[in-house]
Specification:
With 150 residues, this protein is mainly β. Helices cover 12% and strands 41% of the residues. The protein has one domain: Immunoglobulin-like, CATH 2.60.40.
């Protein structure tokens, strides 16, 4: 009886880990902005979620001069599976509006938000996150690694 319960418990725990895979501060090859970071990537059977953080500087010479940032997410933002080149366009956002609505973030403040996309294949090992670059405020991350690094 104890063995059966142990097997059921282990099976249940394994099933829970197969439902979603989460990567905290995943490694990446390059990014377009030093003040934007990927804090978490979560892959499930039904969606892919990318959590990001914008850190608005308090000063930085001529470029920032204690100014607030206006933040919004473009509908053209996508994840690209680097294994097959397929693009997954943004479906939903949390804590940041879709453009043309926007959110003002004051100097010295951080804004953490989530982007949701369709589910990636379980075999995906690298992704890009791209906000179509119309100006220098748009962001991109390339070669985000979706496997454990020892």
């Amino acid at each position: 009886m104890k063995n059966t319960l142990l097997v059921l418990l282990i099976s249940f725990l394994m099933l829970g880990t197969l439902e979603a895979q989460t990567y905290i501060y995943p490694a990446y090859g390059s990014r377009s902005h030093a003040n934007v970071d990927v804090t978490r990537v979560k892959l499930t059977e039904t969606y892919s979620m990318v959590e990001m953080e914008v850190n608005v500087p308090t000063s930085g010479g001529n470029l920032y001069q204690e100014t607030s940032w206006v933040v919004c997410m473009k509908k053209e933002t996508y994840l690209r599976d680097r294994d097959n080149g397929k693009k997954y366009y943004i479906k939903r956002v949390d804590n940041v509006p879709m453009c043309p609505q926007d959110k003002v973030v004051p100097p010295g403040q951080k804004l953490r938000f989530r982007l949701y996309f369709d589910a990636l294949p379980k075999t995906t090992k690298q992704i890009d996150i791209v906000e179509e670059a119309e100006n220098s405020n748009d962001f991109s991350f390339f070669k985000i690694l979706l496997f454990p690094i020892a």
